[in-house]
Amino acid sequence: MIEDIELLHTVIHGHTAFELLRTGLELDLFGHLEETGGLDLAGVAAALDTEEHAARVLLLGLASLRLLHKEGDTYRNAPLARRCLLRGSPNYLGPRVEMQRHVTNPGIGDLLESVRRNTNIGLRHLAGSGPTLYDRLAAHPEVQRVYYENMGDASSKTFPLVAETYDFSSARHVIDVGGGEATNALTLARAHPHLQVTVFDLDEPLALAVRNIKDAGLEDRVHTRAGDLFADPLPEGADTVVFSHLFESWSPARNTELLRKCHDALPPGGSVLVYSFVSDDDNTGPLSAAFMSAYFLAIATGEGMVPSGQDISRCLVDAGFSRTERHDGVGFQHALIAGIK
């Protein structure tokens, strides 16, 4: 019962918990504690250039959240903080915190009205005329930067598992639909030197992709093609299509529409790969899927959520693919589901 009450209090005061974490990151508290091996209250106040009273409030909050341990008078990073909150750590979650701050938090307060009206009312906090977050990003360079840094960071941590898990030996030309700044395309090209990869996306993210491809020296194998994934035809000549973190944005009907377009464009034996966060098939978790689904409904598109693996497989079958295969264990609560024509 005590644990249930603590969970409820954490939910009620969730925004405060977030701000405690963000403040610790902004002041580099976790970095100071790691560099010194631990500090007492006076040492923390000196390192953060704050009064001791303010430092004590921050330390109380982060210790209560179990991100810090206290031994005697000394505060040290808890194992979770060392794993996820230190800059330079392969599991650093700083970009996710910035995404929450700049993109999610301003609009998630409109979740109630978004549920009532089944549309993304929270998008009103980002000025513009388009009906989705993606339509409006270009008019807000700082928000766009945060968004693509978060997406690139997430892809760099998880997508290499796709390159390792799926058998690309018979593939020759892969289209990365909505491939943004080309993180996934470059990962595929490096892992499989025989592949040609085309990033298919809107003009704005492709400007970042062109720069990243040039920096990687892979212009001969990684290409870009501008277009709207719903309105424009896919680039020709591909035998494999990849959707990474796109199915969360759209309804099952729209996802099936995209897959039919792929089915029509692919040769016999061609495949489409859907790489996505997934929710449980019984719609009871996990928490990360629940939080992201609220973001997709209230802010991003007004129609998406984190799908289950069954949802994705059903869309593939409805789109005409004769066979599906599922791969789990490809990143934090992700699945890779393939449809073969």
Automatic annotation (TrEMBL):
Superkingdom of origin organism: Bacteria
Domain annotation O-methyltransferase dimerisation: ranges: 12-85
Keyword flag RNA-binding: no
Keywords for the protein's UniProt record, in alphabetical order: Methyltransferase, S-adenosyl-L-methionine, Transferase
Residue ranges occupied by any O-methyltransferase C-terminal domain in the UniProt entry: 115-322
Signal peptide location: none
SUPFAM superfamilies per UniProt: S-adenosyl-L-methionine-dependent methyltransferases, Winged helix' DNA-binding domain
PANTHER family documented for this protein: O-METHYLTRANSFERASE CICE (PTHR43712:SF2), PUTATIVE (AFU_ORTHOLOGUE AFUA_4G14580)-RELATED (PTHR43712)
Name this polypeptide is given: Methyltransferase
